Amino acid sequence: MSWRVALLRALQQRLINPIVRFAWDVKLPIPGDALLETTGRRTGRLRYTPVCDGLDGDIFWLVAQRGRRADWVRNLEADPRVRVKTGGGRSARWRTGTAHIVDDDDPRERQRYIARSSLARRLCVGTSEAVATSPLTVRIELDQP
Q: pTM for the full model?
């Protein structure tokens, strides 16, 4: 991994992700972002990860930047029941679903698909692509509301 990718990843984990989580906490989420809730594979504690908003009807698409090495991917492999929070302000809501890794999907094409729907998603996906080392597609089949 290059020093640039390592620096971007550190900035994302130590600065950007905490700011995005805080924005969700104060009900001012950043457009184009969503929040993924997984259960920690070792601790059983709930874990919250900022992700790009990949909502497409009753499917939520994600691309893991670090593939199966990402902690949230390891968590959903241990327990595929997850929640995602999308929308902003009062329209923000949690939806439960079941996550599946899609090995035969092209993650770069999936990112382009996610980015097509809005400028905010394009910005999120563009930032995500900059630090992706081994992208992997995840599909979450959302439960009916």
A: 0.86
